[in-house]
Amino acid sequence: DAMVIQNPRYQVTQFGKPVTLSCSQTLNHNVMYWYQQKSSQAPKLLFHYYDKDFNNEADTPDNFQSRRPNTSFCFLDIRSPGLGDAAMYLCATSSRTGVLNTEAFFGQGTRLTVV
Amino acid sequence: AQKITQTQPGMFVQEKEAVTLDCTYDTSDPSYGLFWYKQPSSGEMIFLIYQGSYDQQNATEGRYSLNFQKARKSANLVISASQLGDSAMYFCAMRSNTGFQKLVFGTGTRLLVSP
To answer: CB-CB: which of A88, A101, A103 is closest to B97?
Structure first.
């Protein structure tokens, strides 16, 4: 019954080796978010999509890219992971419904280790 | 710009007692939503409660209630009858209904419930 699915749950990658994290949703939500969360810190928004419109946070490094080929899927690409990129990466979705705000549904996260 | 402030890095409460976790926010948007999430040590983000900026009554969900004071821009979470399983990180978050639908988190409060 999982509605936001992130794969893999755990990812180990080598320093400098490109890695892709994936997120899929069955909720048909038009907004998808990628967050980076380091140990004992708040989730930090990297970017988000509103439908196909991509919105990058000003302080998101160029090393991080994203793709959303359709409503259901969203990918986070890290072109050259550094040791400082080791973190939990959280994908979330939500639906914009007029003046109402709805909760964001989170996946279980992908914990990235860089060796 | 949106900003969420949680001034309590850690809180302790005894089982069965009530506890209040503080959250203040800042936004110039008239329409917004406030959310509380729980994050256990396993890492997933669990939605607890939502309050809309136009809601006249404070939100309640079981043992969770939100003390919403719009003029003071505060949205404190009250957990009644604390349980050992409530020990976790708690994040306050805000999403504006205008602009790009960003969901922004506070720095979190770690709650420890003791027997």
So the answer is: A101
Tens digits of residue pLDDT in A45-80? 999 898 898 989 889 999 999 999 999 999 999 999
Chain B residues touching residue A113 (CB < 8 angstroms) = none
Task: Give the pLDDT band (50/70/90) at residue B31.
Answer: confident
User: Do A103 and B102 make contact, defined as CB atoms within 8 angstroms?
Assistant: no
Q: Which of B45, B54, B64, B97 should be substituted to probe chain A, the one whose Cβ sees the most A Cβ atoms within 10 Å? A: B45
**A41: which chain B residues are within 8 Å (Cβ-Cβ)?**
107-108
Give the whole-angstrom CA distance, residue B45 versus residue A62: 26
Residue B1 has pLDDT above 80, yes or no: no
A16: its two tokens:
């400098």
**Within a 13 Å sphere around the CA of B37, how many CA atoms are in the beta-carbon half?**
24
Residue B24: Cβ-neighbour burial (10 angstroms; 0-12, 13-18, 19+) = middle
b vs e for B44-67, b when ≥16 Cβ sit within 10 Å of the residue's Cβ? ebebbbbbbbeeeeebeeeebbbe
Radius of gyration of chain A, Cα coordinates, nearest whole angstrom: 14
